[in-house]
């Protein structure tokens, strides 16, 4: 057994599923009504896929002593990271383009939209940043080794989702390795959110106020100046939008048989792992086909409707944000990086198998005590403001 063997991923998924089943049996999570349950089930796969992807990279690093080409020997494990993020982007686009399409003549409440997004993404992310800062200070023996201005500036950049830059904190090289830089996908999420007012111009009858349009344009320009735009990420958002349009304006979801859709999905997945990267047009087309079929109701032979998988999907944001920090903590503060380099491949796999239930548990706790209360707080604020507007 080694972290590039397909059975490594299968075992991680099985352990995660069993852990999720046990937690779900004692603690119910009721997702809001009207959700797309196949997409909820898919989320459970995706967040765990990123965890498996990063676990494999760490495993290769401990074997080679270098971060270079850590996944060059496995298309499968490269796609666990890249295809899953592409699908996450498609989910975001699908959900919010669908909201715009369904707004019809009622208009779209942009104030409430941005409030809900802030309370959805920010609290858990801020919690993860505090964990990163604590890790850095622990490695620095609780001494500030740079100027106070530089120290505070680096921390502020992290709290701003590193949209401007990804600085090392307190002169600890490669600080981003603590969470494996997962925040990079979040600032593309923000790019999409701030692009929606512009996109809505061609969708909504009631156009956004000029202030939102200006905000949208400024954000896109500043983002482009700092990061540029990776076109393959944009393709992913386009793929999600296509799915939303097809669901709204066609009856394909009634005509496509689930068994045929599921077979096509498996075929596309097989073709995807023939590529060493998802960032080419052929892979993006295959990923888009998979997503469209799932958005139209394909269940992958019923698997995506499984209640435990939907539970894992509900806690997937915490899984995505926290898993890499847990890996780093175990490797750096638990066993020690030097000792990990002497582990056999089997020993390393056993470590990951042991970590997997903890990832699911802390993800559940993160959802229960940070994510859910924050979402509830957003709803309370929105209700109060809406009531104030009416009065």
Layout of helices and strands:
Elements lengths: L5 H21 L10 H28 L10 H29 L6 H30 L8 H12 L23 H18 L9 H18 L3 H19 L2 H4 L2 H15 L8 H15 L11 H8 L1 H20 L1 H4 L4 H46 L1
Helix pairs in contact: 1-2, 1-12, 1-15, 2-3, 2-12, 2-13, 3-6, 3-8, 3-11, 4-6, 4-13, 4-15, 6-7, 8-11, 10-11, 13-15
Q: What's the number of structural domains?
A: 1
What best-fitting shape do the alpha-carbon axes yield? Answer: globular
The arrangement of helices and strands along the chain is: HHHHHHHHHHHHHHH
- Tally of separate helices: 15
What's the pLDDT, averaged over the residues? 92
Q: What's the story with the biggest beta sheet?
A: none
Supply the helix-strand structural class: mainly alpha
The number of strands is 0
Alpha-carbon Rg, integer: 21 Å
Low-confidence stretches: none
N- and C-termini, Cα separation: 65 Å
State which percent range the strand residues make up.
Answer: under 5%
State the helicity in percent bands: over 70%
Describe this structure as you would to a colleague.
This protein is mainly alpha-helical. It has one domain (6-390). It has 15 helices and no strands. α2 (37-64) crosses α12 (307-314) and α8 runs parallel beside α11. The termini are far apart. The model has no long low-confidence stretch (mean pLDDT 92).
What is this structure, in a nutshell?
The chain has one domain. It is 73% helix and 0% strand. The chain has 15 helices and no strands.
List keywords for this structure.
15 helices; mainly alpha; globular
């Amino acid at each position: 057994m080694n972290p590039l063997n397909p059975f490594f991923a299968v075992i991680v998924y099985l352990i995660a599923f069993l852990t999720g089943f046990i937690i779900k049996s004692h603690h119910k999570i009721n997702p809001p009504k009207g959700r797309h349950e196949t997409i909820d089930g898919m989320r459970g796969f995706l967040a765990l896929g990123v965890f498996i992807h990063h676990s494999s990279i760490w495993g290769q690093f401990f074997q080679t002593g270098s971060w270079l080409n850590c996944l060059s020997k496995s298309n499968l494990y490269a796609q666990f990271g890249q295809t899953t993020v592409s699908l996450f982007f498609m989910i975001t686009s699908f959900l919010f383009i669908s909201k715009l399409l369904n707004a019809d003549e009622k208009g779209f409440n942009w104030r409430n939209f941005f409030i809900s997004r802030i309370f959805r993404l920010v609290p858990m992310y801020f919690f993860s940043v505090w964990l990163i800062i604590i890790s850095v200070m622990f490695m620095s023996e609780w001494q500030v080794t740079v100027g106070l201005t530089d120290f505070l500036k680096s921390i502020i950049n992290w709290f701003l989702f590193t949209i401007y830059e990804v600085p090392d904190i307190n002169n600890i090289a490669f600080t981003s390795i603590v969470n494996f830089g997962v925040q990079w996908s979040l600032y593309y999420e923000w790019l999409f959110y701030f692009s929606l007012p512009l996109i809505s111009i061609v969708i909504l009858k009631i156009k956004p106020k000029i202030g939102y349009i200006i905000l949208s344009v400024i954000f896109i320009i500043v983002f482009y100046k700092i990061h540029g735009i990776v076109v393959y990420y944009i393709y992913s958002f386009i793929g999600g939008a296509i799915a939303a349009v097809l669901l709204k304006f066609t009856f394909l979801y009634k005509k496509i048989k689930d068994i045929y859709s599921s077979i096509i999905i498996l075929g596309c997945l097989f073709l995807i792992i023939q590529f060493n990267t998802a960032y080419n047009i052929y892979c993006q087309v295959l990923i888009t086909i998979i997503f469209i079929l799932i958005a139209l109701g394909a269940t992958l032979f019923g698997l995506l409707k499984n209640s435990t998988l939907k539970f894992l999907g509900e806690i997937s944001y915490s899984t995505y944000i926290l898993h890499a920090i847990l890996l780093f903590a175990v490797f750096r503060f638990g066993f020690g990086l030097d000792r990990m380099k002497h582990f056999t491949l089997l020993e390393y796999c056993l470590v990951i198998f042991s970590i997997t239930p903890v990832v699911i548990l802390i993800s559940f706790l993160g959802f229960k005590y940070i994510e859910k209360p924050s979402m509830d707080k957003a709803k309370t604020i929105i209700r109060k403001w809406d009531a104030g507007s009416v009065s």
